[in-house]
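Re: weekly structure request thread

Next one in the queue (296 aa):
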Amino acid sequence: MYCAPERPDWEREGRDWPNRSASRFVDAGGLSWHVQEMGEGATILLIHGTGAATHSWRDVTPLLADRFNVVAVDLPGHGFTSHPPFWQLGLGDMAAAVDALLTALGRAPEVVVGHSAGAAILAKMVIDDRLSPRLLVSLNGAFLPYGGAMGPIASPLAKALFMNPVMPRLFAWGTNRRGAERMITGVGSTIDPEGVELYTRLAKRPAHVGAALGMMASWDLASLKSQLPLVDVPVLLVVGEADEAVAPSEADVVAKLLPHVRIQRLPGLGHLAHEEAPDVVVEVIVDAIERLGSNP
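Done, posted below.
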């Protein structure tokens, strides 16, 4: 059973963290959260995907902050947020944890944006009546059970790796910049050297790796799929057509399950579209807000 020592250190791995001046630490739900907040106006909440942290929004946050109050967080066990007990890494647990943080912050976001697994967390929060935003934006959202040849074994494999206390350390100790680059290009994206270095920095810390494996091991995406018709808020599915982590065709399946949905496809962009072309993604988000009839 993995118990998550060796977390990223704010004074070491976070020494030159993107948007560091906007960072603070907030206690909520038994965790110490790393939160970044900037800008004024209606609140937009940004939730990253598995294995990432607030650095993935490094260029998106300042652009949105020109018009909105933007809150970005490191999920439990990720980045600089403390690690919960291993049994609290499930989808419902993550949704409850983010809800506790928003309560502590006194924020009720009017727009929520989630990348990959982050979009699933936000959908679960809506389903559980923890959120009622005017708009949910999914960036290459991971809503469906793992597909492809690895589908039948992906979650059991992640669970086996997670439950072995040695494996997160082996993953972390074996990570170098070249390995991080391979993982990024493997999801169909090419990002700047700063982004590669930041992913490498986090992936060297066993606690961060363990949280990512724990999420993959714990999530019940089949149940989420069955509950998607309960997401009764407008949803924009932003799809990178070069995504090799979440098949672009999954958006069509998800769209049939959601009551209020629109798909926007981004040619040439992969799973990390918001890091490849942050200006394009911000334009899509702002346009979607304006389509609601007026800015929130």
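The beta strands are 23-28, 31-38, 43-47, 69-73, 111-115, 135-139, 235-240, 261-266. The longest strand covers residues 31-38.
Next request, please.
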